[in-house]
Amino acid sequence: MQPSPLNIWSFQDSLTRRLAVWSAFSILAGAWMTWGLPLTQDEPTLRILYNPFVEYWRGMGIQFLVWGGIDLAIALFGAVGTQKRKAKRTPEELTSTQPAERANLAKILWINTGLDILYVTGGIALTLTLGASDAFWQGSGRGIIIQGGFLFFFDLFHALKLR
Length: 163
Known about the structure:
The protein is mainly α. It has helices at 8-36, 52-87, 91-96, 98-128, 135-161. The chain has one domain (8-37, 51-161). It contains 5 helices and no strands. The two termini are 19 Å apart.
């Protein structure tokens, strides 16, 4: 018994939903890291004082907010694009265009996987350079590493599913 072939349209819908969930998590976590963490153990209202603990989490939180916003935009753009392409096609065309859609999505995912490696490398470089002496940049670099690392595995997993 052969497994049923992958429906590329359902796959794209699932992929964009998963990315939207990750982006929502990133935005919420980033907001909490940026504004919701207690500022100090003793005086939570003294934001004007430099506090490395706060600066580290603020740097990471900003990265989570920005990456989450970008991921959400990509998920929305992908969902809208998929719906537009589906709406233009007859049921027969939906079936016949699956190989081309699959190849195009696979190409995009493989390119993104390569870019994700660059993001992680940039995060490491930021952590080791500016982050070596500044807690904000340390948090920013680690935030990039986490976000880029997640996207690497996300894109790789979905690209491999299309093989």
